[in-house]
Amino acid sequence: MTVADPRLSDAPAHSRTSLLGRRRGGRPPRFPRAAAYVALTKPRIVELLLITTIPVMLFAAGGFPSGWLILATFVGGALAAGCANTLNCYFDRDIDALMKRTENRPLVTGMVSPRQALVFAAALGLASTGIFLAFVNVLSAVLALGAILLYVVGYTLLLKRRTSQNIVWGGIAGCMQVLIGWTAVTNSLSWAPFVLFGVIFLWTPPHYWPLSVRYREDYANAGVPMLPVVAKPTTVSKQIVLYTIAMVLCSLLLVPLGDAGVVYGAAALVLGLVFLGQTVGLHRRATRFEKETGGRDAGTLEQLAKISPMGVFHGSITYLTLLSVAVAVDPFVNVAWPF
What we know:
The protein has 17 helices and no strands. By secondary structure, the protein is mainly α. The chain has a single domain (about 10-335), classed as Farnesyl Diphosphate Synthase, CATH 1.10.600. The longest helix has about 30 residues, at about 260-295. The chain is flat. The two termini are about 40 Å apart.
């Protein structure tokens, strides 16, 4: 919902489903209009957000919660994220038309009209709220609705076009899935879900800014002040390293505050150090880049490609996926600390 879209919402066109959702081999789908509606929900974002939801539910339950509860939370969360992403496409259709990566989105090409998108988003939002109220609990329903409002109002309407820190604070919406997953099981909140909330909050800039570096010209052309548009590559890479350090430290807090065992603790430390190494490598490449260009400007698209930021972008997805696996596995292995 941020994520990110802090996250894969603005991933390069070749890695996303195109307007017509072309299949491998270039063949269009059998139902192009349906594919266009699916594209509005940005399914890659939904997929990434829900990676964190189910592991948190397993951790909160100390095992397997009800299968129906997992299904209801999964579907309700997916619909809420789809609602938020569709509204993001609606409000951003003007700048989407100016960026190569987003110029084929359904609202830009006219495959779906603005009115149709609003009706679709409303239906998704109502369905999500209904599922949470009927099959989960009121607290989870309120958090899901809050996530939609944070992403649409907080990020899309207020922050995205006004501040270079847009993705930092806008990323809060993507963190809400952790709280939703926890409350679905416990109907309450504690320190553990807020630790995981903090991990995803701190993960968002190292995840999204490398993508923004790679596609800086797109954002500049659209007048969106992403940090890589208004700051030097080394400024961006330094902040990425700092956020990563804070993220790793925050992830380790789940041991004392959430009673996580050795499996999670070891995974959090190793995965964090590996990803930190990737971000440090990015900073070194950015430093070399500035020395080569004399620091005169932020560089052209071809020059910025030498920094190879996409390795960190993909590394961030791997990090979050494997950390979520560790969260899910830890309650079943149940290896306690020896001290």
